[in-house]
Automatic annotation (TrEMBL):
Pfam families: DUF1304 (PF06993). This is DUF1304 domain-containing protein. The keyword Transmembrane helix applies. Keywords: Membrane, Transmembrane, Transmembrane helix. InterPro entries: DUF1304. The keyword Transmembrane helix applies. The chain crosses the membrane at residues 6-29, 56-75, 81-101, 113-131.
Length: 132
Protein backbone atom coordinates (compact mmCIF):
# COMPACT_ATOMS: atom_id res chain seq x y z
CA UNK A 1 0.00 0.00 0.00
CA UNK A 2 2.93 2.32 0.69
CA UNK A 3 4.19 1.87 -2.86
CA UNK A 4 0.79 2.74 -4.34
CA UNK A 5 0.56 5.77 -2.03
CA UNK A 6 3.99 6.93 -3.21
CA UNK A 7 3.07 6.41 -6.87
CA UNK A 8 0.06 8.68 -6.40
CA UNK A 9 2.25 11.17 -4.54
CA UNK A 10 4.65 11.10 -7.50
CA UNK A 11 1.79 11.71 -9.93
CA UNK A 12 0.63 14.62 -7.79
CA UNK A 13 4.15 16.06 -7.77
CA UNK A 14 4.43 15.74 -11.54
CA UNK A 15 1.09 17.49 -12.01
CA UNK A 16 2.21 20.32 -9.73
CA UNK A 17 5.49 20.63 -11.60
CA UNK A 18 3.44 21.05 -14.76
CA UNK A 19 1.29 23.68 -13.05
CA UNK A 20 4.49 25.45 -11.96
CA UNK A 21 5.65 25.48 -15.57
CA UNK A 22 2.32 26.87 -16.78
CA UNK A 23 2.13 29.57 -14.12
CA UNK A 24 5.75 30.65 -13.77
CA UNK A 25 7.25 30.04 -17.20
CA UNK A 26 4.52 29.77 -19.84
CA UNK A 27 1.87 32.09 -18.35
CA UNK A 28 1.53 34.41 -21.32
CA UNK A 29 1.60 31.59 -23.89
CA UNK A 30 -1.45 30.07 -25.55
CA UNK A 31 -1.51 26.83 -23.53
CA UNK A 32 -1.46 28.55 -20.14
CA UNK A 33 -3.95 31.17 -21.29
CA UNK A 34 -6.30 28.44 -22.53
CA UNK A 35 -5.84 26.32 -19.40
CA UNK A 36 -6.55 29.18 -17.00
CA UNK A 37 -9.17 30.96 -19.11
CA UNK A 38 -7.09 34.09 -19.67
CA UNK A 39 -8.90 35.89 -22.49
CA UNK A 40 -6.28 38.32 -23.72
CA UNK A 41 -2.55 38.84 -23.86
CA UNK A 42 -3.07 42.04 -21.86
CA UNK A 43 -4.79 40.13 -19.05
CA UNK A 44 -1.96 37.59 -19.07
CA UNK A 45 0.64 40.36 -18.78
CA UNK A 46 -1.31 42.08 -16.00
CA UNK A 47 -1.54 38.88 -13.92
CA UNK A 48 1.91 37.55 -14.77
CA UNK A 49 3.63 38.41 -11.47
CA UNK A 50 0.79 36.87 -9.44
CA UNK A 51 0.90 33.68 -11.50
CA UNK A 52 4.71 33.59 -11.30
CA UNK A 53 4.56 33.63 -7.50
CA UNK A 54 1.72 31.09 -7.37
CA UNK A 55 3.68 28.75 -9.60
CA UNK A 56 6.48 28.63 -7.08
CA UNK A 57 4.07 27.49 -4.37
CA UNK A 58 3.23 24.55 -6.62
CA UNK A 59 6.93 23.90 -7.23
CA UNK A 60 7.72 23.84 -3.51
CA UNK A 61 4.86 21.44 -2.78
CA UNK A 62 6.09 19.14 -5.55
CA UNK A 63 9.68 19.28 -4.30
CA UNK A 64 8.67 18.48 -0.71
CA UNK A 65 6.63 15.53 -1.95
CA UNK A 66 9.45 14.24 -4.16
CA UNK A 67 11.98 14.50 -1.34
CA UNK A 68 9.52 12.60 0.86
CA UNK A 69 9.25 9.80 -1.71
CA UNK A 70 13.03 9.62 -1.95
CA UNK A 71 13.37 9.50 1.84
CA UNK A 72 10.92 6.60 2.11
CA UNK A 73 12.78 4.76 -0.66
CA UNK A 74 16.11 5.45 1.07
CA UNK A 75 14.95 3.88 4.32
CA UNK A 76 13.75 6.90 6.29
CA UNK A 77 10.02 6.23 6.33
CA UNK A 78 9.14 8.64 9.14
CA UNK A 79 10.86 11.62 7.54
CA UNK A 80 9.57 10.62 4.10
CA UNK A 81 5.97 10.12 5.18
CA UNK A 82 6.04 13.44 7.03
CA UNK A 83 7.20 15.25 3.89
CA UNK A 84 4.65 13.47 1.69
CA UNK A 85 1.88 14.32 4.17
CA UNK A 86 3.00 17.98 4.23
CA UNK A 87 3.41 18.33 0.46
CA UNK A 88 0.47 16.25 -0.75
CA UNK A 89 -1.74 17.36 2.14
CA UNK A 90 -1.14 20.98 1.17
CA UNK A 91 -2.04 20.13 -2.43
CA UNK A 92 -5.34 18.68 -1.20
CA UNK A 93 -5.98 21.74 0.96
CA UNK A 94 -5.25 24.11 -1.95
CA UNK A 95 -7.61 22.13 -4.17
CA UNK A 96 -10.33 22.36 -1.54
CA UNK A 97 -9.82 26.12 -1.23
CA UNK A 98 -10.21 26.45 -4.99
CA UNK A 99 -13.30 24.25 -5.00
CA UNK A 100 -15.00 26.13 -2.17
CA UNK A 101 -14.02 29.62 -3.29
CA UNK A 102 -14.71 29.11 -7.01
CA UNK A 103 -17.25 26.33 -7.59
CA UNK A 104 -17.13 27.12 -11.31
CA UNK A 105 -13.56 25.77 -11.25
CA UNK A 106 -14.58 22.41 -9.77
CA UNK A 107 -12.93 20.44 -12.58
CA UNK A 108 -9.58 22.16 -12.01
CA UNK A 109 -9.88 21.77 -8.25
CA UNK A 110 -10.68 18.06 -8.47
CA UNK A 111 -7.83 17.53 -10.92
CA UNK A 112 -5.47 19.30 -8.53
CA UNK A 113 -6.52 17.36 -5.45
CA UNK A 114 -7.34 13.84 -6.71
CA UNK A 115 -3.84 12.31 -6.88
CA UNK A 116 -2.61 13.79 -3.59
CA UNK A 117 -5.84 12.84 -1.81
CA UNK A 118 -5.47 9.20 -2.83
CA UNK A 119 -1.84 9.34 -1.71
CA UNK A 120 -2.62 10.87 1.69
CA UNK A 121 -5.44 8.42 2.40
CA UNK A 122 -3.40 5.35 1.41
CA UNK A 123 -0.32 6.55 3.27
CA UNK A 124 -2.38 7.24 6.39
CA UNK A 125 -3.84 3.75 6.24
CA UNK A 126 -0.34 2.29 5.85
CA UNK A 127 1.03 4.28 8.78
CA UNK A 128 -1.93 3.53 11.05
CA UNK A 129 -1.83 -0.18 10.22
CA UNK A 130 1.89 -0.36 10.97
CA UNK A 131 2.76 -1.00 7.34
CA UNK A 132 5.69 1.41 7.27
Amino acid sequence: MVVVALVFAGLAALLHLYIFWLESIAWTGPRARRTFGIRSQEEAETTRSLAFNQGFYNLFLAVATIIGIVCVAAGSPTVGATLVFAGAGSMVAAGLVLLLSSPSKARAALTQLAFPLVSVVLLAIAVLSGGM
